[in-house]
Each structure stands twice: as structure tokens, then as C-alpha cells.
Design brief:
The complex is a heterodimer of chains A (108) and B (115).
Chain A: E1 9-13, E2 18-23, E3 32-38, E4 45-50, E5 55-56, E6 61-64, E7 70-75, E8 84-91, E9 102-107
Parallel strand pairs in A: 1-9
Antiparallel strand pairs in A: 2-7, 3-4, 3-8, 5-6, 6-7, 8-9
Chain B: E1 5-7, E2 10-13, E3 19-24, E4 31-38, E5 42-50, E6 53-57, E7 64-68, E8 74-78, E9 87-94, E10 105-106, E11 110-114
Parallel strand pairs in B: 2-11
Antiparallel strand pairs in B: 1-3, 3-8, 4-5, 4-9, 5-6, 7-8, 9-10, 9-11
The chains are: A mainly beta (108), B mainly beta (115).
């Protein structure tokens, strides 16, 4: 499985934008980039995914580098509820393989 | 409510015992995935079923088994339980096999404590 690299932790203040980076230098042409998050004591939750183009949905935006070797999940205005572990996953089979993710702390 | 239902939410049992965890996938989803999350191992993929058939196996112990029934619900059976099996067990579902253009839906998990 292609590997992703994320920072262990990041911090943000409430109502500020947050950019969560992910490096995936060995990505192949058919790998989709998926992001999930896990709030404390809950199951993982789908956030967004993309293949080549930037994507927006009600939760976040996904910016994908032109060479696809990195991507950034953007939370436009962080809230306390966004405090979670965020996982960047390359999907090239029908199962999600989780790494260690980025723990996002949001301060009031 | 994600649409994926896991029962029970909490389970406490003794070493050596056997337990069954249940998962009902989101309506219309044919694939079910089981994951184990312990403090020191993160989220580990265990096994996948698609429309009643085993599709993929991950780091699942021989003491663990699973099945998916005709109504598409799935059960994960854990036997000869050890203290180290204490973990959160999550179930996820998806429409089919390899649908990378869709998100996967997870349940809220079963917290297993082995004492």
C-alpha cells in the first residue's frame, strides 16, 4: 500500500483556517486521496476525497498538488468540534488502510 | 447516526471467553469491513466481506472469525479472549467492492474490555 506522511499534531485557534498537509510521494495514477477524521470516542468519519482536481464540500476543501505527491486538507474556519485525528489515506484497493494521522487541537 | 449500527456498545468479559460483535451496514451497502483500534496499534484492518463472501483479510488473529449473513449484517467472533484483545472494534460499510469515488461509513464501535 502506498504510504502517506502526516505531522503528528497541529494546533489552531477557533475560527481560523487550518491547513493539514499530507505527503504521498509514491502515489500511483489510480490512487484516490481520501481524508477521514476521528473525533474522541467515535468512529472514523469521511471528510472528503479527490483524484486530481481540487475538491470542495460542506465540511472542507482538498487541494491536490499538480504532481499529486502531496495534498492539503483545508478547514476554512476551525471550531472546537473539529478537534480530532485526521487521516490521509491513498485508496487503491477496496479497503482503507489507516496511518497514524494528525491530531488537531483547536483552542478557544 | 451514520446508518451503520454496531451492537453492543460496550462489552466486558473475562479472559478465555468468547464474544460476538454485530454490525448492520448502511442500507444498500454490500461490503462490510472490520477494524480493531487499540491504544498502541491504531486502526488495524481485520477483514472484509462482500455480499456474504470473504473478500480480504488483514491482521486478523486465528482466534477471530467473521461472517456476513444473507441480510448483509455481519458478526465478528472473538474467542479465547486475552487481555490484549481489549480494544475498540469498528465496522464500516460501502456500496460494493473498490468504489474509490465514494466515502466509507463507519459505525460508532464496540468497546471490548477483557478482564
Amino acid at each position: 500500500d502506498a504510504k502517506t506522511t502526516q505531522p503528528n499534531s497541529m494546533e489552531s485557534n477557533e475560527e481560523e483556517p487550518v491547513h493539514l498537509p499530507c505527503n504521498h510521494s509514491t502515489i500511483s495514477g489510480t490512487d484516490y486521496i481520501h481524508w477521514y477524521r476521528q473525533l474522541p470516542s467515535q468512529g472514523p468519519e469521511y471528510v472528503i476525497h479527490g483524484l486530481t482536481s481540487n475538491v470542495n464540500n460542506r465540511m472542507a476543501s482538498l487541494a491536490i498538488a499538480e504532481d499529486r505527491k502531496s495534498s492539503t486538507l483545508i478547514l476554512h474556519r476551525a471550531t472546537l468540534r473539529d478537534a480530532a485525528v485526521y487521516y490521509c489515506i491513498l485508496l487503491n484497493t477496496d479497503k482503507l488502510i489507516f496511518g497514524t494521522g494528525t491530531r488537531l487541537q483547536v483552542f478557544p | 447516526d451514520s446508518g451503520v449500527t454496531q451492537t453492543p456498545k460496550h462489552l466486558i468479559t473475562a479472559t478465555g471467553q468468547r464474544v460476538t460483535l454485530r454490525c448492520s451496514p448502511r442500507s444498500g451497502d454490500l461490503s462490510v469491513y472490520w477494524y480493531q483500534q487499540s491504544l498502541d496499534q491504531g486502526l488495524q484492518f481485520l477483514i472484509q466481506y462482500y455480499n456474504g463472501e470473504e473478500r480480504a483479510k488483514g491482521n486478523i488473529l486465528e482466534r477471530f472469525s467473521a461472517q456476513q449473513f444473507p441480510d448483509l449484517h455481519s458478526e465478528l467472533n472473538l474467542s479465547s479472549l486475552e487481555l490484549g484483545d481489549s480494544a475498540l472494534y469498528f465496522c464500516a460499510s460501502s456500496e460494493g467492492t473498490y468504489r474509490p469515488d465514494y466515502g466509507y461509513t463507519f459505525g460508532s464501535g464496540t468497546r471490548l474490555t477483557v478482564v
